[in-house]
Structure formats: C-alpha cells, structure tokens
Amino acid sequence: MTPQFTRTINPAPASKARRDDVLADPGFGRYFSDHMVTIRWTVDRGWHEPAVLPYGPLMLNPASMVLHYGQEIFEGLKAYRQPDGSIASFRPDANAARFRGSAMRMAMPELPDDLFLASLSELLAVDHGWVPAAGGGDDSFYLRPFMLATETGLGVRPSSEYLFALIGGPAGSYFPGSTIKPVDVWLTTDYARAALGGTGTAKCGGNYAASLLPQAQAAAHGCAQVAYLDAGERKWIEEMGSNNLFFVFGSGDHAEIVTPSLTGTILAGIIRDSVLVLAKELGCEVTERRVSAEELLEGVAAGRVTEVFGSGTAAVIAPIGGVKHAGGEIRVGDGRPGEITMKLRTLLTSIQRGIGPDTHSWMRTLVPA
C-alpha cells in the first residue's frame, strides 16, 4: 500500500500575476513551482515520511556522502494540460522503471513505482496552476525527480540514508528559439561519454558533470550539443549529451531510420523507444545498429543520409542541421527540418497534448479534470 502523503501548503506562494509572467516566457529549467515532494529512506525503516512541502533549500551536513562520493540519480519527464483540463504525463511508468535501474547501478535503494507515480500526482495536485494551458506549442510542466545519499560520514561505501525529492516548473523549448529549428552538433574525438561497465545506462549527475567540458568545446564551435563516440575504438557514434541520435537513410517509402544500438553505454531513452514504435507505424524500415562517424559523414556528403535528429524528454524531437568536427563540417539535406523528422515530431506531440489517438496508452492522467 502506498503511504499517505502529508501536505504543508506554502504560506507565501507566487501571485497569479507572477505566475502569468513566468508562463508567458518560461524558458527551460529557470522557474519552479511553489511546492516540492520529499520521501526519506533509511536502512532500518525503508521508505517513509512522504510529504508535500513548500519549495525551498535542502539542509545537508557537509559530510553528507553525496557531496563526496556522488551517489545521486535523477529523471526528467513532462506533464501536459489536456484539452479537457486534466493533466497527464507521457509514459511516467517508464521513467519510474528507469529510475529504479539507475538506483540499482549506483547501489541505492529502489523507489517503488507506485511511490514515484504518486509523487507526481501529489505535486501537481497543489501546483496545477503552474501547468501551461493546453495547446501551448512546446510549453509543458517539467518534472525533475532525484535521489541523493544523505548519511553523514566519509567511509567509501553505500550510504545508509537517502532523500528522494521532486521539483518542477513550467518549461518551453529546450534549445534557444524553437526545437523545430535545426541545430548543429559537435562530433568530439577528445572525450567519451561512457565506457562498458561504467554508468552510461544510469541517469546520474556524474555523467552530466563529465559532459560540461566537451559541451563548452561544442559551444565554442557554435554547436548546441555534443555527439560522442565509443570509448573503446573511438569510431562508433553513441549519443548526444541530452539526446539519443537517429539517422534517416533515403526518403519517402524507401526511408530507413537507424539509431545506435543499446550496447550498455547508451541511456535507454523513453522518447527513443517511442520513436522506434511510431516510425514502424509510419511504414519506415527501422534498424538498431552501430553507425561509425565515417559512415555518417560520408553518408551525409553523398546524400544517402537525408535527415538527422535527436530525441529526448526535454527536446522531444530536435532536427539537426549540421555536424561539425575537427576536420570541418557537413550540412544535412537543405538545412530545413526533414519530412520524416517532422512527421514523427507531430505524431509524438499530438499524443502528448491529447489531440491525437493514444493507441499505446502512453498517457497517464496525474490530475483529473
């Protein structure tokens, strides 16, 4: 049975005028709603004290293990206002399962799925006014569940105490401008994202901390993201820092959509999995296999690779207009979003916003109308 959440209402919530100002231009990850959720775990009590609290700072001892040994994981998912006024999320059960998988890899306790899902509903039940209106383009309510080790001590071992927390806020496009404007990516040969046997399949902060230097390198070359090669041979394309990658070979009825196979170093994206399903339903040939940097660059130059796009919770589906690397750069197609890319994006976003048929029951209502 899911424990009952206690609820402490924020005594000084944002005014409606302030909320309206934020909703008019939310950006991404800049603003947060009035409340948060916390649940604690200890080795002797398990999960306990689920609570909705006013949004505010976390109190940590300087010797908290997370600060020294990096036991921390997180997830990212979105909630959408539906045409009937309800609030629903896209495949949150898959996020719950991936959160458990990350916890297992990082030697942390696994949060039961029912508690994970209940935390989403509990937060949105009090902060539903922060969810953008239905039909708002790229706008959504971004949810960030995370867990960290809170035991005080400097011995190198798994913590005996953890804190799960959930925060959220309204969000617009992930990339500046619009997610349908093609972005350039930097193909790095200097850095690798993850190695076999490492933490590449876990959504943990360390993976992202390690990406900040190559991300700065990408920005210096005018790119929005980094595309990584495998750590072993430095030959095979794996993923971007925040997106899985897809390559379209050919066009129309003869199009083949290829994405790097999950080898144990690539994060299993929930949008990635959804794209594979929808692409097959569009009639495309879908292949998961290794793709070398050489095959990509030569394929784009020869016109065999007609579209490239990234997929992820934050950006949903983002067209890629160019690939830059140490030896130069290539432009993909005519520089505009590809036909198949946009078909998939339209299909996916129509499901998320409740205006298209949800034949796979991917949407889960978190707050009824």
Could you explain the architecture of this structure?
- The protein is α+β, with helices and mostly antiparallel strands and 369 residues long.
- Strands 1, 2, 3, 4, 5, 6, 7, 8 and 18 form a nine-stranded mixed beta sheet that branches. Strands 9, 10, 11, 12, 13, 14, 15, 16 and 17 form a nine-stranded mixed beta sheet that branches.
- It has helices at 16-24, 66-69, 92-105, 113-127, 205-209, 212-220, 270-281, 293-302, 339-352, and strands at 6-7, 35-42, 46-54, 72-74, 77-81, 87-90, 140-149, 161-171, 183-192, 225-229, 237-240, 244-249, 256-259, 285-288, 305-312, 316-325, 328-331, 363-367.
- The chain has nine helices and 18 strands.
Set down the secondary structure blueprint.
Elements lengths: L5 E2 L8 H9 L10 E8 L3 E9 L11 H4 L2 E3 L2 E5 L5 E4 L1 H14 L7 H15 L12 E10 L11 E11 L11 E10 L12 H5 L2 H9 L4 E5 L7 E4 L3 E6 L6 E4 L10 H12 L3 E4 L4 H10 L2 E8 L3 E10 L2 E4 L7 H14 L10 E5 L2
Parallel strand pairs: 1-3, 9-10, 9-16, 13-14
Antiparallel strand pairs: 2-3, 2-8, 4-7, 5-6, 5-7, 6-18, 7-8, 10-11, 12-13, 12-15, 15-16, 16-17
